[in-house]
Amino acid sequence: MPYIDLDLQKLYGENFSGCFDPNTRNIRTRQPCGRTHHCKKCKAPTKRSCYEVDKLHLAFCIAVNPETEIMCGERFSVDSPGGCCTHPYNHGFNLIFKEAARGMELSPEAKGILKKDADADLAAEMATLKIEEPKDFEYYKEKKKLEQYEYRMSKLPRQPTKMKASKLQPAESLKAYKSKAKR
Predict the structure, then answer these.
(1) CA 4 to CA 55: how far, in whole Å?
(2) DSSP for 96-162?
(3) Is residue 1 very low, low, confident or very high in pLDDT (cuts 50, 70, 90)?
(4) pTM greater than 0.70 (yes/no)
(5) Which of 3, 5, 120, 143 has its CA 20 to 30 A from that of 157?
(6) Residue 147 CB coordination number (10 Å)
(7) 8: enclosing H helix or E strand
(8) Are the C-beta atoms of residues 144 and 150 closer than 8 Å to each other?
(9) Distances (CA, A) of 98 to 53, 88, 92
(10) Per-residue pLDDT tens digits for 117-159
(11) What does residue 155 show for φ and ψ, rounded to 5 degrees?
């Protein structure tokens, strides 16, 4: 399978579709970049095409934390020597993007990553099938809402602030200042 057939939508999730903002710092949280950066390869403002497989100037980290099973999602430059700042290339993360940028065939490690992502997608879909019954208004009224008198009683009076204000003294006259200097 060549890299051109990679489905980035499946790798990155639903935040990569539709009205995707190219200045996104983290694809998982949709956190925007602090400043708008330019693509180092295009020397132009970042566009969605900078993330596509045919160019692949920028990518989002697809490393999964084994404890939480959540994708990292941080943006990084594919040509950078390190990769993602948390999950570098030399630790085996995100090599799929480095190989794709070089135009290589899909490696066995990359096939394993894609299989893990497909399994994670299936698990995520199964987790969203939980249906929770909505609570009725009586439950809200009994458990959540404080009665008016309870609310008033719960508020404590404000403590007076203690300020140590010293009175300012008027400045010395010139005559008094000179007489002190002569002593």
Answers:
(1) 10
(2) HHHHHHHTPBPPHHHHHHHHHHHHHHHHHHHHTT---PPP-HHHIIIIIPPPHHHHHHHSPPPPPP-
(3) very low
(4) no
(5) 143
(6) 9
(7) helix 8-12
(8) no
(9) 11, 11, 11
(10) 555 665 666 566 555 555 566 665 666 655 655 666 666 666 6
(11) -80, 125
Distance from C-alpha of 163 to C-alpha of 161, rounded to nearest angstrom: 6
The CB-based long-range contact list for 177-183 (8 Å cut-off, 24+ gap) reads none
pLDDT (mean) for 4-24: 80
DSSP state of 39: E
What is the amino acid identity at position 30? Answer: R
CA distance 138 to 136: 6
Sequence-distant (≥ 6) Cβ neighbours of residue 41 within 8 angstroms: 50, 55, 57, 79
Whole-number Å distance between alpha carbons of 97 and 8: 11
Provide the β-strand partners of residue 59.
76
Is the distance from CB of 96 to CB of 116 less than 8 angstroms? no
